[in-house]
Amino acid sequence: MEKKFKRTLVTTALPYANGPVHIGHLAGVYVPADIYVRYLRLKGEDVVMVGGSDEHGVPITLRARKEGITPQQVVDRYHAIIRDSLRDLGVSFDVYSRTSSQLHHETASEFFSHLLEKGEFTVQTSQQPYDESAGEFLADRYVTGTCPRCGNERAYGDQCEACGSSLNATDLINPRSALTDAPVTMRETTHWYLPLDRWEERLRSWILDGHKEWKTNVYGQCKSWLDSGLQPRAVSRDLNWGVPVPVEGADGKVLYVWFDAPIGYISNTKELLPDTWQTYWKDPETRIINFIGKDNIVFHCIVFPAMLMAYGDNFQLPDNVPANEFLNLEGDKISTSRNWAVWLHEYLADFPGKQDVLRYVLTANAPETKDNDFTWADFQARNNNELVAILGNFINRAMVLTHKYFNGAVPAAGTLSDKERTLQADIENVKQRLAAALDTFHFREGLREAMELARLGNRYLQETEPWKLAKTDMEATATVLNTALQLCADIAVAFEPFLPFTSDKLWQMLGMDGKPAWTMLGQPELIAAGTQLGQPELLFEKIEDTTIQGQLDRLARIKEENKQASWRPAPQQPDVDFDSFMKADLRVGTVIECEKVPKADKLLRFLIDDGMERRTIVSGIAKYYKPEELVGRQVVFIANLPPRKLKGITSQGMILSAENSDGSLCVIAPSGPVAPGAQVK
């Protein structure tokens, strides 16, 4: 039998304050967490949601160095942007704090000191990357080099963003410092480690035996880690930005961000409830839910629980960790460093008043079981075909017809027909399925059930045709419109967790006082007869093609900028001796004729005046030049290559081209006219 809890503490992963939040963060963590919390509040349950910005760690210092400002200035800026944009999207935190606060520093320091006093740490000395020029140790993110798996020359010491591989700094080929571009050396340093292996059996029992109801992606990843065997993990780092290690002589060392950040959940709760915070962390009657993305599963299911086990003092472990997978953008992985994202604060500026449209699309396409893709075409289609054509359409029809036939006052219902009784049963079934979906963190399914209410409403109006009934039977018309308006109120209740701005607007349009409650959903007389409705307003509006094209154009510009920024010259080829080089006969020729080669999209056939005769050369540059653009121009070619056949044409040489950063080819030519056949020396 499922245990009943008196209260729920919901935590959300702390976003790094080195940039704004994007749709990947929203779909993975903040929108589902807010849906769940709003649902529990609708039911009148005791629930608290805590969150905050993660303001320590290497990404912060990298951003500060890049911009020439202090880490504190970086986090002050982005903390405000993140806090305000989440608030404006309707994410209803009870507290949204930050890990640079004094309270958090005190809480994290005390946590470390308590474990140290209990003997829960080991001390290890190891070789770590070091920058001799900068005179400091390098965190993995400060080390760049060539990925040993895919050859990407700009991989980081913790991950290759090109192929997604997790790396160690020592894995990189030709590792260099991101600070000074100096070669990386290795130097000894000493750190404190949390021996996760001590807690392996307890973690195995707690997760694998005690939480088989967890999502398969979470359970599977935990099992993989446990089956591989847990190893001690460093809890300190050589860095000057973060919570200082509270040990004498530990200058220049801070708590590692993975150790420091989850303690932020505790300090945030302390900030909100200074006198009763322990009730939400140490009382067995409290249920703790961690909303995170899949990249944080190990920290919230293995590492942080081990920290709490080691601390003792009745700290409760999370009851569930409903982690989502990743959301991609237009078929490509979202990347903060590449600016490949839809940033929340920019969306709110570009689409004023459309917070719920984004919430709807991200929930409808949530990456609950596998990675999903956000596209602007899907965004437009879901708005126009679902929010406007289904939900908004039903509400508007019911409101407009009531104003037309009853001056905007809710008419009293007469005798209910089989249609009304069937509709009431359908609504009750939707309510049960909706609750089951939300209780088990299936928010995408829950949204479909909420939308089913609007589908039922449209079908009901289509079948009863009150606009025809009004010509002969006003009593029956009153019953139909009363039923439709009761369903409008049901929709306001059901959609409150998903679309809070829309729900609130609809609730007011229906003339309802107070706030909706879960028990109201499905009540046959939720709106009293005689209630005066507000003026009908469109809840949603169509989004035009030009608006979507503007967003696609922006992404195209970003993609082009990324190509330019990431371009590097190809590695130099092995040395050749001078005599070998001189064997290549490079000459200038004038293009007499140029045409496309039939059935070969990439090939052009040239007829070249080489000063002695006319020769034919086939070159693969048709994608970048029209034949008529090249006639009369001079080009550089290799004259003494053996002839070879391409598409049945004998090619007598090779035209030289240079490859641009975008992969396009540019024909090499002399800067001024020269005699055909002139040698290049």
List keywords for this structure.
Methionyl-trna Synthetase, domain 2; alpha+beta; 4 domains; Isoleucyl-tRNA Synthetase, Domain 1; Rossmann fold; 681 residues; single chain; 24 strands; 4-stranded parallel β-sheet; 5-stranded antiparallel β-sheet
Short description:
Strand 20 and strand 21 (649-651) form a beta hairpin. With 681 residues, the protein is α+β, with helices and mostly antiparallel strands.
By DSSP, the count of extended strands is 24
Q: CATH topology of the largest domain, what is it called?
A: Isoleucyl-tRNA Synthetase, Domain 1
Question: Sheet with the most strands?
Answer: 5 strands, antiparallel
- CATH superfamily assignment of the largest domain? Isoleucyl-tRNA Synthetase, Domain 1
How confident is the prediction overall: mean pLDDT? 94
CATH class of the largest domain: Mainly Alpha
Helices, by number, come to 20
CATH architecture of the largest domain: Orthogonal Bundle
Taken as a percent bin, the fraction of beta residues is 15-25%
Number of domains: 4
With strands numbered from the N-terminus, the spatial order across the biggest sheet is 18-17-16-19-22
Please state the oligomeric state of the protein chains shown: single chain
Helix content: 40-55%
